[in-house]
Specification:
It is a single chain. The chain has 456 residues and is of the alpha+beta class. The protein is 58% helix and 15% strand. The chain has a six-stranded antiparallel β-sheet with strand order 1-2-3-4-5-6, with no helix packed on it. The protein has a three-stranded antiparallel β-sheet with strand order 7-8-9, with no helix packed on it. A hairpin with a 2-residue loop joins strand 8 (284-288) and strand 9 (291-294). The two termini are 51 Å apart. The relative contact order is 0.11. Residues 272-282 have low confidence and may be disordered.
């Protein structure tokens, strides 16, 4: 629903076929599956164990000497299978679905809406035609003072149609536009009758009509499918192998730019080794005939003439300015590469984090169901949505920190998963030991007693 409301303006009023919209929704739904699976595992585990606890079936298991860990063992194996399937889906199916969805959405966005010729201006919506309409009656859609320039021959304004009035309508299959014109003229320049370029005569033909129909094929108004190679470079459309290849390429580009900057600074900046100079405790010394002599820069500079001093200062200022420009340009270039690199690294880790989250959400949902002792779609839905929203918020925060290079890709993307591990172990331990403090009814009884004492 969020996708529909976001792109509703791109879908409405373009004459799209039902199959096209259904295809777009299917690919969009497939791209949401990796995010939906963890929530589904959390909700289903809470509902399942909540029903078992609500009907005292867990109590019967424990009375028979079967601990909670043994009860959860077959479902743990099942959750591991779901985790592996979620990873395979994220690595193989989702890139294909994202590629199909993005290319189809791009084609829909580029498609022209239903034809609506503007009045008072020359409208070039129809390829090969320039149309000007003076006025349109909003009630009858009658067009007045119509002028049509036919440029399909690519010879300029050689064919012009003028009409007093007319109507426009599209055929039922929306492939052709029919223009019915009344009381007008057709002006056609006879290019073939001109004898030579030096001939300044322009033979023309004028046809008068009381009613005429023009049929224009609406090729630009059909959905044209774009080559999908245009979108394959996006990180959403890549599997793990492709993401690692792009990561290595971007890292090499960053290293190359940094080395280029270092070489430029070496060539344009002060470098004692290039002048056979060395640094002593006091000041630089310059080698002269195998012997080093002290350099006093102020004394050397004071020996220059006034013009040479001015030239030296200007040259130094320009050198510093050029160096700063090189540093700033290199910084912007490298920063753009780093931002791109972070996008691909985020996508790499996301394929693992969303899959692993399915496993740990089971260890959160199953104990919570045993503790809450409520099945159905009431309390389990509320609890699972709250946990998932918290997990999603922490994931977004970590992803944002990675994009801004505050955290490393591993720590930022795995922080939300590492947060689930202690929670899952804690809840599993409390459910296995029948901890009373985690029972929801305990808190309700405490509140009733507390408010009861205050009323008395």
């Amino acid at each position: 629903m969020q996708f529909l409301w976001k792109y509703i303006d791109e879908l409405v009023g373009k004459g799209l076929e039902t199959e096209i919209i259904a295809e777009l929704l299917i690919y969009t739904s497939a791209s949401l599956v990796p995010m939906a699976i963890p929530l589904a595992v959390l909700l289903s585990s809470i509902m399942t164990f909540g029903n078992l606890a609500e009907h005292n079936e867990l109590l019967a298991f424990k009375t028979a000497g079967i601990p909670l860990q043994t009860i959860m063992r077959p479902i743990i194996v099942f959750s591991i299978g779901i985790t592996l399937l979620a990873f395979l889906f994220s690595n193989h199916v989702m890139p294909f679905a994202n590629l199909q969805m993005r290319s189809l959405l791009y084609d829909i966005q580029r498609q022209n809406p239903e034809l609506q010729i503007k009045t008072g201006v020359f409208d070039n919506t129809l390829e090969g035609y320039s149309i000007r309409i003076e006025h349109r009656d909003p009630k009858t859609n009658l067009l007045k003072n119509i002028r049509i320039y036919d440029h399909t021959g690519k010879q300029g304004n050689t064919t012009v149609t003028l009409a007093d009035s007319g109507y426009m309508r599209m055929t039922s299959d929306e492939r052709n536009l029919i223009i019915t014109l009344y009381n007008g003229y057709n002006y056609i320049e006879m290019q073939k009758d001109r004898k030579a370029r030096r001939d300044k005569s322009y033979p023309a033909r004028r046809d008068m009509f009381s009613e005429q129909q023009m049929i224009i094929e609406l090729t630009d108004f059909r959905l044209q499918r774009t080559d999908q190679d245009l979108f394959k470079s996006s990180f959403h459309m890549m599997n793990l192998k492709q993401l690692r290849y792009v990561e290595d390429s971007l890292i090499n580009q960053i290293i190359i730019h940094q080395n280029n900057l270092y070489n430029i600074l070496q060539r344009t900046s002060y470098n004692p080794s290039r002048l056979h100079m060395k640094k002593t405790n006091e000041q630089d010394t310059l080698s002269h005939d195998g012997q080093y002599v002290k350099l006093v820069y102020d004394d050397i500079f004071n020996k220059y003439s006034r013009e040479d001093k001015s030239y030296t200062i200007d040259n130094a200022i320009n050198l510093v300015r050029n160096t700063m420009n090189n540093i700033n340009n290199n910084f912007v270039t490298v920063d753009n590469f780093i931002r791109r690199l972070r996008r691909y690294q985020i996508e790499m880790h996301r394929k693992f984090t969303l899959s692993i989250a399915c496993f740990f959400f089971f260890f959160i949902g199953a104990p919570l169901g045993a503790i809450i002792r409520k099945g159905g779609l009431g309390m389990p839905v509320v609890v699972s949505v709250i946990f998932f929203i918290l997990y999603y918020i922490v994931s977004l925060m970590g992803e944002k920190f990675v994009r801004e290079s505050v955290f490393s890709p591993f720590s930022g993307m795995w922080f939300s998963t590492f947060l689930l591990i202690p929670i899952s172990f804690f809840l599993t331990y409390k459910a296995a030991t029948d901890s009373v403090i985690m029972h929801i009814d305990t808190y309700f009884k405490f509140l009733k007693k507390f408010f009861g004492k205050n009323n008395t």
